[in-house]
Amino acid sequence: MKKLINSPDSVIADALRGMAAAHPSLAVDLENRVVSRAGGATQGKVGLVSGGGSGHEPLHGGYVGYGMLDAAAPGEVYTSPVPDQILAATKAADGGAGVLHIVKNYTGDVLNFRMAAELADDDDIRVVSVVTNDDAAVEDSTYTAGRRGVGGTVFVEKIAGAAAEEGADLDTVAGIATHVNEVTRSFAIALHAGTVPAAGKPGFDLADDEVELGVGIHGEPGRERGSMAPVHDLVGYSLDVIHADRPLSGDLLVMLNGQGGTPLIELYGAFAEAAAWIEGHGARVARSLVGNYITSLDQQGFSISVLALDDDLLRLWDAPVATPALRWGR
Amino acid sequence: MAFDTATATAWITAAEAAVKADEARLTGLDAAIGDGDHGANMARGLSAALTNIAEKAPTTPGDVLVSAGRGIVAKTGGASGPLYGSAFRRAGKALGDAASVEAPELGAALEAALTAIKELGGANEGDKTMIDALAPAVAAFQAIAADGGPIAMAAAAAADAAEQGLAATIPLQARKGRASYLGPRSVGHEDPGAASTTLILRALAEVTA
């Protein structure tokens, strides 16, 4: 394993120090491991908190700022943050109008955020939680832990963040976040697994002619293994799965996301295929993101997330945002 | 022998050593059907348990387990943190203020731990989780305790039952936790949570032997 690190133990602390040095708009609490807005909580505004394992950068710390999150709690690599840490983030985000927890549906994240919400309640901070579960690769049944929260989480953080910035109350912001999650679907394919620094080797092995279909964001294997194919076929397969789960029509927000180890030139090639597929199915790409927005360390591969836009969602998506990783209109 | 403050502390100390020694194996099991962090997380969590015990200097076995649970919740993260943390806390609370307990009380505390894990995680036997090791272990422990057997014998039987439960997870398809995303592909692997539970119960057998 060759990684640009000092040691596997210091990866997260070093990255947080770097975020603090690079972004004066952020306040980075190195002891509690909380990233929040430098100016503190906005009084009277609903606070937005998210968090989860590290290794998905820019998620979540890179989305702290005007129009998105108020605070983020990064855990160990691929491991959810702990309750005290989430509580510290919740306090940093609390402007007196309550706090929304945006939680990706993984057992560990859900349990730790639930414990943190109980602690916040003890401190008289009202918390509502929205659990994202947009991954079309997983059957939601009694035989699984439910669908995973993946790329759609970025849409939820942006759109709910815009609603909070407009002055919407906690229940309204939570309702919008829930709605965004419901109308979003994602699917991912990996070409080569990422390497957790402490593990030192890739999370799974793939032959040169194999791909992992339907991977999550933690390097966990997907639902099945497939044959390597041209990007046209891989993107088509992904959109077929999404379309079968929730038919695509009308104006869409489309994110073609890299998993951390795939060059932008390939992501643009993939987006060309996605745009052609969508047009061929009578829908329209109204807004798009192409790049690394929710990664899995150095994993090679991509995910596609698609959200069905209406006028309200489009307005909230277009609303000003100023974070390290998303920035427009301000 | 009775289960007192020294024995409880020795249990957590031995559990931490066992998990550290087997950290790579636990991580390997998790990499196969999860995300490959279980060894590191359990080592970190049980270290935190020991640190918290050293700081709080508990004077009853119940307090030792509560301190261990709080340390685990504070530092572990993932699902293991809340699940193991709540398990130890509830076991500790079940022991109450007693300075020393016998097999029936310790059996009841282990059952409280099992109940805590089931409530928090929503899993049951057969879902390919830590419960598949813990549930048969609790039953074996309580059966011997009910017959008036000593803690050493009950704990040894519990560790054996956990090992059998762990082996029985291999053909199961996971229905809870991250391995459930694999569906049929989770078959053929030991469950990492059941493996760490077995190590912790074997540590109890060793310190009470």
From TrEMBL, chain A:
User: What's the source species for this entry?
Assistant: Jiangella anatolica
Q: Name one GO molecular function term.
A: glycerone kinase activity
Lineage, uppermost ranks: Bacteria, Bacillati, Actinomycetota, Actinomycetes, Jiangellales
User: Which NCBIfam families does the protein's record reference?
Assistant: dhaK1 (TIGR02363)
Domain of life, per lineage: Bacteria
Keywords (alphabetical) are:
Kinase, Transferase
InterPro entries, A to Z: DhaK_1 (IPR012736), DhaK_dom (IPR004006), Dihydroxyacetone_Kinase (IPR050861)
Q: What is this protein called?
A: Dihydroxyacetone kinase subunit DhaK
Q: Which Pfam family is an annotated match for this chain, by its short name?
A: Dak1
Please provide one cellular component term from the Gene Ontology annotations of this protein. Answer: cytosol
UniProtKB/TrEMBL annotation, chain B:
What are the alphabetically sorted keywords of the record? Kinase, Transferase
Q: Quote the Gene3D superfamilies the UniProt record gives.
A: 1.25.40.340
The molecular function GO annotations come to: glycerone kinase activity
What GO biological process term is on the record, naming one?
A: glycerol catabolic process
What SMART domains does the entry give? Answer: Dak2 (SM01120)
Reading the lineage from the top rank, the first entry is Bacteria
DhaL domain residues: 6-206
Q: Which InterPro entries does UniProt cross-reference here? A: DhaK_L_YcgS (IPR012737), DhaL_dom (IPR004007), DhaL_dom_sf (IPR036117), Dihydroxyacetone_Kinase (IPR050861)
Question: Which GO CC annotations does the UniProt entry carry?
Answer: cytosol
Pfam family for this entry, one: Dak2
Q: What PANTHER family does its record include?
A: TRIOKINASE/FMN CYCLASE, TRIOKINASE_FMN CYCLASE
Instruction: State the name under which the record lists this protein.
Output: Dihydroxyacetone kinase subunit L
